[in-house]
Structures are given as C-alpha cells and as structure tokens.
Amino acid sequence: MQQTNLFGEIENGQSISLPDADLRYFSQYYQSDEADQLFEYLKAGTPWRQDSIRIAGIERQQPRLSAWYGDSDAEYTYSGLHLVPLPWSQQLLAIKSALETTCACHFNSVLLNYYRDQQDSMGWHSDDEAELGAMPVIASLTFGADREFALKHKTRKELRYKIRLKHGSLLIMQGTTQAHWLHAIAKEKDAVGPRINLTFRRIFGSRSPAK
Ligand SMILES: O=C(O)CCC(=O)C(=O)O
Ligand SMILES: [Fe+2]
C-alpha cells in the first residue's frame, strides 16, 4: 500500500467530480511489484467460475469468470444468481483491512471478476441491490491489464465519463453514486491481457452484523 501523509491520507487519492456521485480514485494504491504479486496470486489461487445468469427469462453465461468471498452469512443474490461466500484467504483479509482504513468503513464480502481478454465484459448496471443498503461504499481494486470503466447518469443522458483503471488502482464509489449512475466494462476491439477486479462490499441483512 502507498505511504500515508501526516493526516493519514494516501498522497495520490483524487476525487472525480461528477454530479450526484462521490468517487475517489487512487491510481497507485498498490505499487507495481506488490500489484504484480497480488495479480499472480489471485489468478492462480482463486476457484474461478463462469456462472449463468437469467436476464429477461433468458439464461446466459457471464462473459467473465468470478468468485465471491466473505463472512459466512454474507449471502448475495442478483439476476437470479445466489452466491454463497467462500471463506476469506489471508491475502484477501489483508487487502480488506487496508481498504477499511482508507475508507473508514467495514466490508464483509468481495466479488472478484476475471476478464480473460478483450472479449470479456460487464454490462451496464448499478450496485444497488437492497442488501447493499441505501448509499453503499464499494471499493474497487484493479490488477492486470488496463480496461476502460464507463459511467453514465441514469436520467441525464448527456452525462458520461470514462476512466482507464490502472494496475494497482483503487476506485471508491460511495454516497449517491449507485442511485444515480450506471457503470460498465465494455468489450474492446484491440487485444487486451487479463484483468482482475475486486469489489469489496458490505452486505446488510446477513444473520449477524459485520465485524
Ligand atoms: O471490473 C470492474 O471494474 C467493475 C466491476 C463491477 O462493476 C462489479 O463487480 O460490480
Ligand atoms: Fe458494479
């Protein structure tokens, strides 16, 4: 993790100012050698699955691999897919603890997504499921290839934003971001190497409160 200054802030955090959103970006939350190690560890050490989800009654394989870790009671359902968490690894717990200090908040689960190449993607969505509460804090870490993270406002169609999330970067989405904005990772035309993204979340309504 980056050095903190006297005020406990990470030097290179920057706010992305968009209406109705609260976004902070740390382009080098992990320095490249540590980010390289985490990428290799996560790629090789995660039991990746390709789940199917049901959209408008049609069953489709997700265009990426994923895995869900968390406290044993942090179950999560979206698009008809019910996810039961894998138990935390030491590495994921260490990352979680660093992020909790940075965000001054608690997480009880993490969704890992593995985009194998330029053909893998994630469609437009908001992370606004009821289990995440009204104004979720979502901490999104990226390892591996740069991919474009696109945002569009739900009602003000002229408002769009794109950022290439870098290896070792952290994007924090909080406040009203999920209520007002959609986000996506589009397929790309040119060849792109593998990318792993981790979104740390806090699921409410689990059988016991998050520690
Ligand atoms: O891969 C990313 O950067 C986005 C992942 C995402 O939006 C999600 O897991 O909900
Ligand atoms: Fe998302």
UniProtKB/TrEMBL annotation:
Residues 106-204 form the Fe2OG dioxygenase domain. Keywords: Dioxygenase, Oxidoreductase. It holds the Pfam family 2OG-FeII_Oxy_2. GO terms for molecular function: dioxygenase activity. The keyword Oxidoreductase applies. It comes from the Bacteria. This is Alpha-ketoglutarate-dependent dioxygenase AlkB. It comes from Undibacterium danionis.
